[in-house]
């Protein structure tokens, strides 16, 4: 069984548990994740999310609706007390 096949067996509950584990650095039983476990969990999360719409993936940032203003003017910074 390869990694991709293993990830295909992940349920939504397991996926949420992996995300939570990476977020807080602990398993549900309180044990800390090792650095290797964090890396493997992140790889599993990324692989699992490949089948999800982009806007539902971890770290998705929607595109800007309006472009930023560009100006060549120098705007001085003023400090007020």
* Main beta sheet strand tally, sense and closure: none
The number of helical segments is: 3
Report Rg: 20 Å
> Mean pLDDT, rounded to whole units?
88
Could you say which overall geometry the principal axes of the C-alpha atoms support?
A: elongated
The N- to C-terminal Cα distance equals 65 Å
Low-confidence stretches: none
How many strand units? 0
Structural class: mainly alpha
The H-and-E topology, N to C, reads as HHH
Strand content: under 5%
What helical percentage do the residues reach? Answer: 40-55%
Description:
The protein has 81 residues and is mainly alpha-helical. It has a domain at 3-56. It has 3 helices and no strands. It has helices spanning 3-8, 12-24, 35-49. α2 (12-24) packs across α3 (35-49). The longest helix has 15 residues, at 35-49. The protein is elongated and about 60 Å long.
């Amino acid at each position: 069984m390869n990694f991709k096949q293993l990830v295909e067996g992940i349920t939504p509950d397991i996926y949420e548990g992996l995300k939570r584990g990476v977020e807080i650095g602990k398993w549900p039983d309180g044990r800390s994740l090792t650095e290797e476990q964090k890396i493997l969990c992140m790889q599993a999360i990324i692989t699992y999310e490949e089948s999800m719409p982009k806007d539902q993936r971890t770290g998705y940032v929607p595109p800007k609706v309006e472009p930023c203003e560009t100006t060549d003017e120098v705007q001085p910074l003023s400090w007020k007390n």
